[in-house]
Amino acid sequence: MQKRQLGATGPVTSAIGLGCMGMSNAYGPADRDESIATIHAALDAGVTLLDTGDFYGQGHNELLVAEAIRGRRDEVQLSVKFGGLRDYEGAFLGFDTRPVAVANFLAYSLQRLGTDHIDIYRPARLDPAVPIEDTIGAIAEQIEKGHVRHIGLSEVGAETIRRAHAVHPIADLQIEYGLLERNVEREILETTRELGIGITAYGVLSRGLISSTPLTLDAGDYRGHAPRFQGENLSRNQALVDKLAEIARAKDVTVAQLAIAWVLSRGEDVVPLVGTTKRARLAEAAGAVDVTFTEAELAEIEAVAPLGAAAGTRYAAEQMAMLDSER
Length: 327
Prior knowledge:
Elements: E1 3-5, E2 12-14, E3 17-19, H1 32-44, E4 49-53, H2 60-69, E5 77-82, E6 84-86, E7 92-95, H3 99-113, E8 118-123, H4 132-145, E9 148-154, H5 158-167, E10 172-176, H6 188-195, E11 198-202, H7 231-251, H8 255-264, E12 270-275, H9 279-286, H10 295-304, H11 317-320
Parallel strand pairs: 3-4, 3-12, 4-5, 5-8, 8-9, 9-10, 10-11, 11-12
Antiparallel strand pairs: 1-2, 6-7
């Protein structure tokens, strides 16, 4: 597995990371044993970066990850998002990133994960009621105590990135970035590169839109409420994927490998997070690290999926309003 460094001050990780959210039923039921086997397969393949959140399955995901890495903690970097407030049914109630909340959320995450430190700790969203300086300062205090190694951000805009980085060096920004979601290229990517901040890109397969297999949505799958998966938007987006699949076939790779490799090609400071619950899909994703492109191939991909090509917003309106990165 190839390696990349997250920003100027962040850790060296595998070139791709494993996103674990789907293992806690975000996309419908997930098989626990297969999920754990997928994490084991990732570690065996040299994938070191595991991404989770304390609100994924209301703590379920952290407990699952802890079980999977037991005895192998020194092989992984744990990237944890915090601050999301959810009720028993899973509905979001908002975000809390007050300094006192940082200490509280972190204590619970350390306990669930069975570790004494988290490698990259980040607020899941910007809390409009709390200055980002206060949140980052509180995480910096946890670095001094040895409970956190690096600070990350998630889905914030250029101004917030600068304010946060002025308080403490930021290792990476986690943000959606892929062939069907390229808004990060408008201003944010320029800012992170200026400041020496890495990118961990999620949604590289557009939540399953970019796939060689037909899309099916199970009960409880949140994508059923996402604009890109509805009506005419879905038809238009699948037509884009069909064109990308043609390019992939000519290159003798899967369309998923094409999409992951494209994100890898964006720069050595970009690490794609591949979310999967199955070993076969993980093996497919891992194969993307060896895929390279000619200038002509990149131009062909650009012609099919330029910035803004996808139909519909990536989240429903209520969730879009929570994204500082979209302001």
